[in-house]
Amino acid sequence: MTKIAFITGATAGIGKACAIKLAKTGYDVILSGRREDQLNLLKTEIQSKYHQKVLSLVLDVRNQSDVNETINKLPIEWKQIDLLLNNAGLAVGVSSLQDGVIDDWERMIDTNIKGLLYITRALSPMMIKRKHGHIINITSIAGKEVYPGGNVYCATKHAVDALTKGMRIDMLEHNIKVSSIAPGMVETEFSIVRFKGDKEKADQVYKGFTPLYAEDIADAVEFIATRPDHVNINDMLIMPTAQASARDVNKK
Ligand code: NDP
Ligand code: 8X3
């Protein structure tokens, strides 16, 4: 039977690359995100190139009632989810804590922590019922280290790191695999979002070195998702060769 993957934040960057990779691997995919136009484009691409089934869901992970309603109302043929990729997330701003913008903090906390929790709370009982499933959380080097201006974003990713460990413990008796991937700098829309649309500032982040690309993380997702039943990758830290730690980049 064809496996089903549910991907949050599939409209861009890492989530989009993972959706394509998983479809190539033979998964039917549920794509979710807020931008309907991007979901539709990706749906058409996957259906035409990889001939997998696609369900697209316009969904803001911050809205708990929408998350519950959408997941409860999944068509029966989409309910047997094998893989949940908790990827939707963002950083907003680089202010020091004392100058922090409260709305930026709320967006990061509500998306990266609470959104991931809402989705996992709604979906995991369906996996538990089947005693089968795999949850992969996208954390970050920012979930292992803290850097200047990273305060709240790093805290949210540290929380996802802790939640992954908690999920692993809680899901153990139900035979559900739980993994996390912690990437270093990946060139996606991430910095455009962080700098609120300032493309010039965003481009500076990746200038002078070769960052990771979304496809590198998709390769890791495929690897983690295709291990034999008795193997669980708990955590994978992936850095660009030119980046040793959170802000230690060898720029030319
Ligand atoms: P992008 O900005 O390219 O993609 C982010 C995705 O998250 C988009 O699809 C966006 O969709 C979605 N998203 C954001 N907010 C919401 C929301 N409220 N509800 C639903 N979907 C949402 O960034 P990346 O691909 O780089 O980021 C993906 C994940 O990887 C994030 O969790 C990020 O923290 C993490 N990460 C990124 C790194 C990097 O350097 N790029 C490094 C380490 C980790 P839409 O706007 O359509 O809702
Ligand atoms: C994104 C990578 O280094 O900008 O999580 O925090 S970093």
| Number of helical regions | 8
Task: Name the helicity range.
Answer: 40-55%
CATH homologous superfamily assignment: NAD(P)-binding Rossmann-like Domain
Count of individual beta strands: 11
Named once each, the bound ligands are:
NADPH dihydro-nicotinamide-adenine-dinucleotide phosphate, 2-hydroxyethylsulfonic acid
InterPro entries: NAD(P)-bd_dom_sf (IPR036291), Sc_DH/Rdtase_CS (IPR020904), SDR_fam (IPR002347)
Family: Belongs to the short-chain dehydrogenases/reductases (SDR) family.
Pfam family, one: adh_short
GO molecular function, one term: oxidoreductase activity, acting on the CH-OH group of donors, NAD or NADP as acceptor
Can you walk through the features of this model?
The protein is of the alpha/beta class. The protein has a single domain (4-238), classed as NAD(P)-binding Rossmann-like Domain (Rossmann fold), CATH 3.40.50. 44% of the residues lie in helices and 19% in strands. The chain has 8 helices and 11 strands. The strands form 3 sheets. A 7-stranded parallel sheet has the order 3-2-1-4-5-6-9, with helices on both faces. Helix 5 (151-171) links the parallel strand 5 and strand 6 (176-183). Helix 1 packs across helix 8 and helix 4 (102-130) packs parallel to helix 5 (151-171). The radius of gyration is 17 Å and the shape is globular. The structure holds NADPH dihydro-nicotinamide-adenine-dinucleotide phosphate and 2-hydroxyethylsulfonic acid. 2-hydroxyethylsulfonic acid binds at residues 140-142, 150, 185, 246. GO terms for molecular function: oxidoreductase activity, acting on the CH-OH group of donors, NAD or NADP as acceptor. This is SDR family NAD(P)-dependent oxidoreductase. It comes from Ancylomarina longa. Belongs to the short-chain dehydrogenases/reductases (SDR) family.
